[in-house]
Amino acid sequence: MISRSALIWLSRHEGLKDFATRFGYFKKLTTRFVAGETIDDAVSHIRAINAENCTASFDHLNESVASESEAEAEVTEYLNILARITETQIRSNVSIKLTQFGLGLDPELTYRNARRVVEEAHKRGNFVRVDMEDSSVTQATIDIFKRLRAEYGLNDVGIVLQSYLRRTYADAQELVKLPARIRICKGAYHEPPEVALPDKKDVDANYVKVMQLLLSSGTYHGIATHDPKMIDATIDFAQREGIGKEKFEFQMLFGIRRDLQRQLARDGFNMRIYVPYGKHWYPYFMRRLAERPANIWFVMKNLVKG
Length: 306
Ligand SMILES: Cc1cc2nc3c(=O)[nH]c(=O)nc-3n(C[C@H](O)[C@H](O)[C@H](O)COP(=O)(O)OP(=O)(O)OC[C@H]3O[C@@H](n4cnc5c(N)ncnc54)[C@H](O)[C@@H]3O)c2cc1C
Description:
- It contains 13 helices and 8 strands.
- The protein is 52% helix and 14% strand.
- Helix 11 (258-266) links the parallel strand 7 and strand 8 (270-277).
- An 8-stranded parallel beta barrel has the order 1-2-3-4-5-6-7-8, surrounded by 7 helices.
- It has a single domain (34-280), classed as TIM Barrel.
- By secondary structure, it is of the alpha/beta class.
- The protein has helices at 4-11, 15-20, 24-29, 39-51, 68-88, 107-124, 138-151, 168-176, 200-216, 228-241, 258-266, 282-291, 293-305, and strands at 55-60, 92-96, 128-130, 157-162, 181-185, 221-224, 248-253, 270-277.
- Bound molecules: flavin-adenine dinucleotide (FAD).
- The site of flavin-adenine dinucleotide has 24 residues, from strand 4, strand 7 and helix 12.
- Flavin-adenine dinucleotide (FAD) binds next to strand 4, strand 7 and helix 12.
């Protein structure tokens, strides 16, 4: 069976996308995890999500841009997304990746680009979530986030932390003091043991520890997971501490555990779905395959069928 690290390696080689998409069915399969290639495709999925009493986070897929002009195109895309959210009145915020705005080229340019998007969100009463990427950019991402947070309000911009990183509990302790709105997730990249906990049980234990710190802080945070154990731990902790359902939200990815998404919304929890769209779906799609071996079987089965 192909390993998780091999899939994550493949996810970083976008050239392979052209090979993979020669199998017509491969592209079709991506629709399980990716909400189409255009803003309008994503809007129509978000309308359906809203109709099930869930909110969304709009994400334009494109990581690690290679030029200033590409980064500029990403800013334009996000300004358009924010305008479309206002026009269509869908209930959605946006998620951005800083490598999309040029982090691999120039941190100052990235800060200015991200700031333009946060400024637009602020004007429109919306919110920008800064996703967390691999550990080579953790500190730079936190530094840029802190500058943005110093200039804008708690409800304008937030960040993501990953429970697999050894540094995360300390980062969470520091960031809650700002205060800052944090999304906690387990982490989706392949990291060396020096920086990330190698055992899943330690990643889970750290997740619970950070979740408890976040919920106790009194700020509105995002608990991003499909893991029923993490969800139960969150609900139990909130009940024990008398923390109301309206004080936090669960978050899941488009197309993953839709049953659980609907169930939590029906049970009165705030539920937000991360909705990625765009032509550059390949690395995102490969990371989703890496998370769960059963997804590979799903792909293989359908390739054979196709
Ligand atoms: C809203 C949201 C935003 C995220 N943002 C980031 C980010 O900014 N940076 C980052 O590094 N990571 C991010 N992630 C990804 C995250 O780090 C994990 O890789 C991913 O959520 C899987 O972890 P899990 O908590 O679901 O638990 P796991 O222990 O991995 O999975 C628990 C169960 O969930 C289901 N499941 C999980 N993944 C899949 C899948 N791909 N396909 C089908 N079923 C699955 C399975 O039933 C599995 O048994 C985000 C995740 C979510 C939900």
